[in-house]
Every structure is written in structure tokens, then in C-alpha cells.
């Protein structure tokens, strides 16, 4: 990742990576502190797809050891803006 992302851009990336896991309206209304896996009923393959989308959108490798940090929209934004 060449430049640091703003929080707004990072949140847009996270919400975009969730596209298809629920309706657009429900994803737009999803609170930033809602646990993603439980709220969206993401199984391990869905979660991996989400992580791959994040990585591709940011041109950044996300290690498996970082997955535990990607629990909510807010924690994903925090991770992406570090």
C-alpha cells in the first residue's frame, strides 16, 4: 500500500468487500461495531473471500495472523489505516 488510507476511504473499502454477503441497504446500515462473522453469518470461506477482497482493494497482503483483528468494520478500518 503506497499511501495511508483515510478512515472514510477505508470504511468504503470494507463495506465494498462485504458486497454480496447481505443486501446493499443492510450493509449500508450495518453498525461499525457489529461482529461481522456473526451478524452476516460468514462461514470460513466467506470470511476468506472478504479478506481477499480487502487485500486486493488495498494492494496489501493480509496475513492469517491478522485475521483476528478483522472482526468489525471499525477494527478493519483501524487495521487498514495503520
Automatic annotation (TrEMBL):
<protein>
    <submittedName>
        <fullName>Acyl carrier protein</fullName>
    </submittedName>
</protein>
<dbReference type="InterPro" id="IPR036736">
    <property type="entry name" value="ACP-like_sf"/>
</dbReference>
Amino acid at each position: 500500500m503506497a499511501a495511508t488510507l483515510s478512515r472514510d476511504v477505508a470504511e468504503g473499502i470494507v463495506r465494498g468487500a462485504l458486497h454480496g454477503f447481505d443486501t446493499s441497504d443492510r450493509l449500508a446500515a450495518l453498525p461499525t461495531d457489529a461482529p461481522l462473522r456473526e451478524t452476516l453469518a460468514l462461514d470460513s470461506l466467506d470470511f476468506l473471500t472478504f479478506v481477499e477482497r480487502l487485500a486486493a482493494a488495498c494492494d496489501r497482503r493480509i496475513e492469517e495472523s491478522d485475521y483476528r483483528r478483522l472482526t468489525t468494520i471499525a477494527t478493519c478500518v483501524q487495521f487498514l489505516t495503520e
